Amino acid sequence: MATLTAGDKAPGFTAKDQNGKEVSLSDFKGKTTILYFYPKDDTPGCTAEACDFRDNYQSLLAKGYEVIGVSTDDEKSHKKFETKYSLPFTLIADDSKEINEAYGVWVEKNMYGKKYMGTARTTFIINGDGIITHIIEKVDTQNASQQVLDLL
């Protein structure tokens, strides 16, 4: 399990998106990438976060930023999520959990005394050279895009 910090090179990956297309982090070279990890499609917090990025997507694009969401859900789940909420950005299916592990966000969680493994909601901001410039560990799902803009 990686422990990444600002200044580290972002781990590369290639995985399928909601349309079954292979996407690599290197596809976004030269752009500031907002890579956000979330636990599960179509749950209240994850939906709020995705819709906040959706509602502010055009202004993020205008500033040269790209948004990529990653969860351990499969392509089919991502497609339903994208369609239901008209999400305009890439959703990566990390059902193998390899990307979650490379970024150190596959962690032990505890809910009501029950321990289980899951995704820690985390946002990484990666510059055009593939270097992590910021990591947001306490994500405000209602204002996720503003948290990013406040840092940039």
Automatic annotation (TrEMBL):
Top-rank taxon, per record: Bacteria
Location of the Thioredoxin domain: 4-152
PROSITE patterns linked to this entry: THIOREDOXIN_2
Ligase as UniProt keyword: no
Isomerase is among the record's keywords: no
Record keywords, A-Z: Antioxidant, Disulfide bond, Oxidoreductase, Peroxidase, Redox-active center
A Pfam match: AhpC-TSA
A GO term, aspect molecular function: peroxidase activity
Catalytic activity line of the entry: a hydroperoxide + [thioredoxin]-dithiol = an alcohol + [thioredoxin]-disulfide + H2O
InterPro entries, A to Z: AhpC/TSA, Peroxiredoxin_AhpC-typ, Peroxiredoxin_BCP/PrxQ, Thioredoxin-like_sf, Thioredoxin_domain
Annotated EC: 1.11.1.24
Subunit description: Monomer.
Family per record: Belongs to the peroxiredoxin family. BCP/PrxQ subfamily.
Role this protein plays: Thiol-specific peroxidase that catalyzes the reduction of hydrogen peroxide and organic hydroperoxides to water and alcohols, respectively. Plays a role in cell protection against oxidative stress by detoxifying peroxides and as sensor of hydrogen peroxide-mediated signaling events.
Protein name per its UniProtKB record: thioredoxin-dependent peroxiredoxin
Species of origin: Mucilaginibacter boryungensis
Gene this chain is encoded by: bcp
